[in-house]
């Protein structure tokens, strides 16, 4: 958590999971359902991993599912590495496997969990859907799970920020539990998670890449696997193995390799093509469409190829719990011919049964559905026709927007299709923000920033829904990628939630929380004066409620004073900044004496801020004493918990600046060097959060050497790097970082003048 983040909630409210990152906010006094903990490991397994009915294998495309077990499983070296990670003592608790769609991530997870179960582990894919969190909490806290080694595999982790946020505390309280994440990309979500305080000390920051079998195996072995798969598919169909051809360019992923083998078996009797060059998955889907059309015709339903594509889109994209919901989805389609939609829904439900009990579910592996969605988007008459049809079909449901977001990471996707899917997601955000806004904010805030900002403006999303989203974002680390979005949300909430006459202390408290989040957002984008006004109002309110009830509100006041001190300092109101920082430290010292485990980090942070304020009014010796006390505390904290490294880095930065001012040159150079090194470590795990601090620490590093005229060649390199970073940051947030860029350029000029 950064200095400018301000999160409350203990005893007031908390976030509960409902569905894949769908949030219900339980107010004080409300509780989620209570579930009795399991007494046996088998019961815990059902609560964590759900039940698994037999895999339907009636259609050839189902044979490509990871759990179909039609073709022999190929050993992967990554499985051996992950098994060692699980069984060896002293390793991290969470790892990420990252690979493009179709590389075999799910199969890798199945191999690993199967091997671990043979060793006596409780292992499987975490079923975090629906309202199952009470069951997951009960299972992870139960005695059977506490006594057995456990691995939880979470697929599509890049879209499950809230699941991971909630899981962190459960895993920390269960020392024998490990978590394996599977994702298509690392992106900003992974950097945020690595730096998330809730996961501190538990995460291996280096993702394990998963490539294609075609890259890992020798060419002759790849062709042998291809041929072996073709034999298995032929046996399943009761046919002779056809004469096979090999085209390496068609098999860039593991799924492509198996899809090409299946395609050649299917083509041997009656070939058909999708029209997409070198895409065996698309060609297998062409066989699938022909099969579905034949089944419909056998039921007396004759449809055109275009109408069939739309019908399959409904089954692949929109969940349907009942036949009525399925028919409603089909009615939203731009079909050219009138047919019996109830009969169509029943046929599609038979072909694509929902294992969870609904009418239909998209085919697996997921790339089949993704490929079809992209094909329909690309084949639509125009952008507008596609967008209107997609929005009408998806309706007010969050699952379709998640699938559309997933499509954007499909390998070798057509650029027109990607653009049109992006347009559909943007329109869903604007037209259906209640369900579609939050998943997009969490997954792709920069890509859809314009549409997100349109959805959260006044007269847009309902206030209650906007507050829910605000609570969620406040539970996560501050992110530059979401800076403009969080600012827009806070701005509207402050404008629309001002307490009226007779408001309670709690209402004023929550309003102060919103003001402080607004201040953080304003400061992040460089609007310093507005940030100061907001934080000043927050402090005023919190002082009033803390006077009445210090046991509840004193902690919030201390945090607000610390943030307000920073804002005052930036505004040049240095004596007032010093007073606010001193008040904050006074409160934190008292709280840390009562509960050091909870408040010692806050005291360390406050001492550092107080040191900065003292140095600003030329009381440098006093500043050094407070900063050195802060560093002493942070070193102890960071030794046990790497999450405090950023606090140590910040205090080392302040120490170097103040040592240079009193002429302790060698110590200043050493402190500035340590600050840069610490920030380099932090940038590796989360560049989005720590790149700005690395840039400013490099400026201080170079400036200290200019002042002392020592190590100037090293200073030249540091200043050059600082300019590059500041230029990058100023391109994103010019109001915030243009001044730093100018300072770095001036330091570079000074260095060259001394050389």
UniProtKB/TrEMBL annotation:
It holds the Pfam family TPR_10. It comes from the Bacteria. Coiled coil: none annotated. SUPFAM superfamilies: TPR-like. InterPro entries: TPR-like_helical_dom_sf. Gene3D superfamilies: Tetratricopeptide repeat domain. This is Tetratricopeptide (TPR) repeat protein. It comes from Crossiella cryophila.
């Amino acid at each position: 958590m950064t200095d400018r983040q301000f999160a409350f909630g203990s005893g007031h409210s908390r976030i509960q999971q409902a569905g894949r990152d769908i949030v219900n906010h339980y107010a004080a006094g409300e509780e989620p359902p209570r579930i009795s903990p399991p007494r046996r490991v088998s019961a815990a397994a059902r609560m964590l991993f759900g039940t698994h009915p037999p895999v339907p294998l009636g259609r050839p495309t189902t044979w490509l599912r990871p759990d179909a077990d039609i073709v022999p499983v190929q050993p992967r070296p990554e499985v051996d590495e992950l098994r060692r990670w699980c069984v060896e003592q002293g390793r991290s608790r969470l790892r990420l496997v990252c690979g493009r769609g179709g590389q075999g991530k799910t199969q890798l997870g199945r191999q690993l969990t199967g091997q671990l179960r043979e060793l006596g582990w409780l292992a499987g894919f975490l079923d975090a859907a629906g309202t199952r969190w009470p069951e997951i909490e009960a299972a992870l806290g139960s005695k059977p799970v506490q006594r057995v080694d456990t691995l939880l595999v979470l697929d599509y982790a890049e879209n499950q920020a809230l699941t991971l946020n909630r899981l962190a505390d459960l895993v920390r309280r269960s020392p024998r539990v490990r978590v394996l994440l599977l994702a298509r990309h690392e992106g900003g979500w992974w950097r945020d998670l690595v730096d998330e305080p809730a996961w501190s000390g538990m995460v291996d920051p280096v993702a394990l890449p998963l490539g294609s079998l075609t890259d890992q195996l020798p060419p002759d072995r790849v062709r042998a696997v291809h041929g072996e798969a073709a034999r298995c598919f032929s046996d399943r169909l009761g046919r002779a193995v056809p004469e096979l051809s090999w085209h390496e360019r068609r098999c860039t992923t593991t799924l492509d390799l198996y899809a090409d083998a299946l395609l050649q078996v299917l083509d041997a009797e009656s070939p058909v093509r999708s029209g997409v060059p070198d895409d065996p998955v698309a060609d297998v889907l062409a066989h699938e469409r022909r099969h579905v059309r034949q089944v419909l015709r056998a039921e007396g339903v004759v449809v055109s190829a275009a109408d069939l594509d739309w019908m399959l889109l409904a089954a692949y994209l929109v969940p349907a719990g009942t036949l009525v919901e399925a028919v409603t989805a089909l009615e939203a389609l731009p079909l050219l011919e009138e047919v019996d939609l109830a009969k169509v829904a029943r046929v599609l439900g038979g072909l694509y049964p929902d294992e969870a009990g609904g009418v239909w579910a998209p085919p697996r592996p997921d790339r089949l559905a993704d490929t079809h969605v992209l094909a329909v988007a690309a084949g639509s008459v125009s952008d507008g026709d596609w967008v209107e049809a997609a929005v009408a079909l998806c309706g007010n449901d969050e699952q379709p927007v998640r699938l559309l977001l997933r499509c954007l990471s499909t390998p070798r996707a057509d650029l027109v299709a990607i653009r049109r899917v992006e347009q559909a997601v943007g329109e869903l955000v604007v037209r259906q923000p209640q369900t579609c806004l939050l998943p997009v904010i969490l997954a792709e805030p920069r890509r859809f920033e314009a549409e997100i900002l349109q959805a959260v403006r006044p007269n847009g999303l309902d206030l209650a829904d906007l507050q829910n989203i605000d609570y969620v974002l406040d539970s996560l680390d501050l992110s530059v990628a979401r800076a403009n979005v969080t600012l827009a949300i806070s701005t509207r909430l402050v404008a629309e939630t001002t307490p009226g006459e007779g408001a309670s202390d709690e209402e004023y408290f929550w309003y102060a929380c919103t003001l402080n989040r607004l201040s953080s957002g304003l400061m992040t984008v460089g609007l310093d004066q507005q940030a100061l006004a907001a934080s000043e109002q927050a402090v005023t309110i919190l002082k009033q409620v803390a006077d009445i009830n210090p046991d509840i509100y004193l902690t919030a006041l201390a945090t607000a004073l610390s943030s307000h001190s920073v804002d005052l300092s930036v505004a040049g109101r240095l004596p007032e900044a010093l007073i606010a920082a001193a008040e904050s430290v006074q409160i934190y010292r008292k709280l840390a004496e009562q509960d050091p485990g909870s408040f010692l980090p806050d005291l360390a942070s406050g001492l550092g801020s107080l040191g900065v304020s003292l140095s600003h009014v030329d009381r440098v010796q006093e500043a050094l004493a407070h900063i050195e006390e802060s560093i002493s505390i942070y070193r102890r904290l960071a030794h046990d918990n790497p999450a405090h490294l950023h606090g140590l880095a910040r205090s080392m930065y302040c120490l170097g600046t103040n040592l240079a001012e009193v002429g302790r040159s060698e110590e200043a150079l050493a402190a500035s060097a340590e600050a840069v090194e610490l920030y380099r470590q932090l940038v590796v795990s989360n560049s989005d959060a720590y790149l700005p601090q690395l840039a400013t620490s490099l400026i201080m590093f170079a400036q200290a050497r200019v002042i002392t005229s020592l190590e100037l060649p090293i200073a030249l390199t540091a200043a050059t790097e600082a300019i590059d970073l500041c230029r990058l940051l100023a391109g994103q947030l010019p109001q915030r970082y243009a001044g730093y860029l100018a300072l770095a350029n001036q330091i570079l000029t000074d260095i060259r003048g001394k050389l």
